[in-house]
Specification:
about 260 residues; alpha+beta; 2 helices; twelve-stranded antiparallel β-sheet; 14 strands; Lipovitellin-phosvitin complex, beta-sheet shell regions; single chain; signal
Length: about 260
């Protein structure tokens, strides 16, 4: 075998191996949300409720907030500082600005640390009387912009699915509905993985039966270990008037639209 032919064979073998690695990377991945050092994460969350009337009209209520997580430089202890801020932006009623009192965490500079694997620990919440409860609320808010998703520990291949259940607040009521969501990995391209989601629920709340069905997408950035986009629409149907809306002229039907965009 001549040296030139041998080199060609080596180049060809290397190209085939690289192609195999690339194909594998595009067809399977492990998903874990992390917060890396020296990074600013910003997410804009919008939640919209559309309540339908008996005569073709509808009532739309929406709110928008911005979550900011800023991490510092990693130290010798493999931990680094983090600050968290939740900023309420606006609320709208049928497209017009309206007032909706922000939660008590609004605009507070929350201080904590992040471990090497990206887990956050809360140390200080200014003005919080019950720090333990406030910490739970902080993690609940963070989970909202992360889609309330707990990814499996194992690798997921394109075409595979996993199922999770989370609580959804019900409009005009203080109750929550257990939503069963199926996440199906449909593609991995350019470091971005897309999941298609389907949501179902069937529950009885105070004698009123509620059924729900919906769908959406989630885009996960594998390089940044963060969710970049969430879109979901969930249709709720009641067998009777929603709690608190009897004799209001409203139909027992609601659409909940959630969107999240992060940098």
């Amino acid at each position: 075998m001549t040296p030139k032919f041998y080199i060609k064979q080596m180049v060809l073998a290397g190209a085939v191996a690289l192609f195999a690695i690339t194909v594998k990377a595009q067809n399977a991945a492990t998903f874990k949300i992390k917060f890396l050092p020296n990074t600013v994460y910003t997410a804009t969350l919008t939640e919209e409720f559309v309540i339908y009337g008996k005569y073709g009209d509808k009532m739309c209520v929406s709110s928008t907030s911005v979550d900011t997580v800023q991490t510092g430089r990693a130290g010798a202890s493999n931990k680094y500082p983090v600050t968290i801020k939740f900023t309420y932006k606006n609320a709208r009623f049928n497209g017009e600005p309206t007032y909706n009192k922000p939660g008590y965490l609004n605009n507070r500079l929350i201080i904590g640390t992040v471990s090497q694997i990206g887990l956050i620990s809360i140390e200080t919440i200014p003005g919080a009387i019950d720090v333990e409860k406030a910490s739970r609320d902080v993690f609940k808010e963070l989970s909202s912009y992360q889609g309330n998703i707990q990814f499996p520990d194992n690798e997921i291949k394109v075409g595979e699915s996993f199922v999770r259940t989370h609580k959804q607040q019900i409009p005009s009521d203080t109750s929550t509905l257990a939503i069963i969501t199926t996440y199906k990995l449909v593609s991995i391209k350019g470091g971005l993985a897309q999941f298609n989601t389907t949501m179902v629920a069937n529950s009885s709340l105070g004698g009123i039966t509620v059924t729900a069905a919906g769908s959406g997408i989630i885009v996960f950035d594998l390089n940044a270990s963060q969710i970049r986009k969430i879109r979901s629409e969930l249709d709720l149907t009641y067998n009777d008037a929603m709690p608190g809306t009897q004799n209001s002229g409203l139909m027992p039907k609601v659409k909940i639209i959630n969107t999240v965009d992060s940098n």
